[in-house]
Amino acid sequence: MNSPDPLVAMLRSAGCVFAEDEATILRDAAGGDAGLLQRLCARRIHGEPLEHVVGWVAFAGRRLSVGPGVFVPRRRSELLAAVTLGAAA
Questions:
Q1: Rounded to whole angstroms, what are the CA distances from 86 to 74, 79, 81, 83, 89?
Q2: Do the beta carbons of residue 10 and residue 45 sit within 8 Å?
Q3: The pTM is what?
Q4: pLDDT tens digits along 44-78
Q5: Nearest-CA neighbor of 22 among 1, 46, 49, 4?
């Protein structure tokens, strides 16, 4: 039996529904820097959107930069974007 991942447990207890995915993204963003990982996790646990914490969002097969105050496009908006871009062509 695998021991539980403490980062996943922390994220889950903070209400992160996709805690396993978020833990992977946060670890990748920290690049092995334990102090940076701790700071990123603290921001996420205090309610900051994951995309703002790491500075990007995956959208329509691209990685878009985002920051505080920037609208974070959601996956469910990808169809709308595709239709809009198709209509503009």
A1: 19, 10, 8, 5, 5
A2: yes
A3: 0.81
A4: 999 999 999 999 999 988 899 998 888 888 888 88
A5: 49
